[in-house]
Amino acid sequence: MKDGRTHMKYKAENAVDLETEIIIAAEVYPGDQGDTTTIEDTILAAQTHLNEAQTECEIQEIVTDKGYHSEDCLDHLQNDLGQRTYIPEKHRNQPRRAKDKSPEVNHSYYRNRRNTKGKRGRQLQRKRSERVERSLAHLCDTGGARRTWLRGLEKVQKRYKMAATAFNLGRILRSLLGAGKPRHLAVLAEAFCFVYLAMWWYEKARMAFKITFQPHETENRNPAPAIA
Q: pTM surpassing 0.85?
């Protein structure tokens, strides 16, 4: 910690689809590993999960916060993995020295800056701030995955993946039924029952006070001539 204390912790990392808000990969790493060193493993895990699900989707764009910004990371993601990055830059106290870097690193750096400051980059960052952080809040705060009494990386990762599975199941139920949680589903069931009873009482009252009109027999205005 910054104050010199030592806490036992792990670092959770989610790969979320910004369109559907589905968690594609939920990985847990040791707490001493930085974000720039684990992002590649998370991306590969997410692509592996998409392939195992027999989908034709491929990861093409990566949107993260400024904690993942690194020149080597940008170079590797763009040139080796072929990804389009939208990673904001960290605050610098001194200007960047581009002369000491290779042309590939400089191209990756300025390409990421151009992508991030563009119109699409700003839109993706707004989506990331809303949807990715929402998934972390559901897992860590609402789902209780911020603290654990398990020991070992494997057990902690199983616990975290179960919470991510429950989150994805809630998203699927919300798209199908309009409710992602049992409590919300109970509220919708109560509303449905109220609407059904209201319609039943209305139909019953309408049938009770229904007035039937019988059509009168029309007079024959052109009678047949009498035959003497």
A: no
